[in-house]
Amino acid sequence: MTQTLAQIVRQTPGNLPAYSIFSMEELVQRSTAQRRFLMWLVTAFAVAGLVLAGIGLYGAISQSMAQRTREIGLRMALGAQLSDVQKLILKQGMFLAAIGSLCGLLIAFGGAGMMKSMLYGVSTSDPITFTCVALLLFGTALVACWIPARRASRVEPMIALRAE
């Protein structure tokens, strides 16, 4: 279509030049290319940060449970149910996640003004966005804590008490 348009423009009286003819869609693509790239880059870093946070929390809870193997074995030998052990570990991890989320929300509300120029169609204090992000972080923390909790609840009491 651009070739036809350029030919028609050249045939008009006045010999108008016909170069750099683009469709509106292509012009929009070109004008937003840098922003789209930056948003993809920010998204990639956010996903990497979420994965690293989940791995870090998983590692911290796993290490804590490895150090408390005897305590968990003793609790189970004295009659603690599997669900009790899992709840104990999940509470510990989710408490850390709640503190981290609260600090993150406070920092996000404080720093949202700096991101105002990058946001389109979303206010800097959008409750849906903040809620979704907090739920995503809690979900990640829940998975990161559930795996060590499940592993710790399968500890054999006698083996844990004998081990040093």
Walk me through this protein's architecture.
The protein is mostly helical and 164 residues long. It has helices at 2-11, 24-67, 69-77, 82-111, 127-153, 157-162. It has one domain. It contains 6 helices and no strands. Helix 2 (24-67) runs parallel beside helix 5 and helix 4 packs antiparallel against helix 5. It is elongated, with a radius of gyration of 28 Å. The termini are far apart. The model has no long low-confidence stretch (mean pLDDT 82).
Q: End-to-end span in angstroms?
A: 79 Å
Computed over alpha carbons, the radius of gyration is: 28 Å
Structure classification: mainly alpha
Number of domains: 1
The SSE order reads: HHHHHH
Largest beta-sheet characterization: none
What are its keywords?
mainly alpha; 77% helix; 6 helices; 164 residues
Give me the secondary-structure topology.
Blueprint: H1 2-11, H2 24-67, H3 69-77, H4 82-111, H5 127-153, H6 157-162
Short recap of the structure:
By secondary structure, the protein is an all-alpha fold.
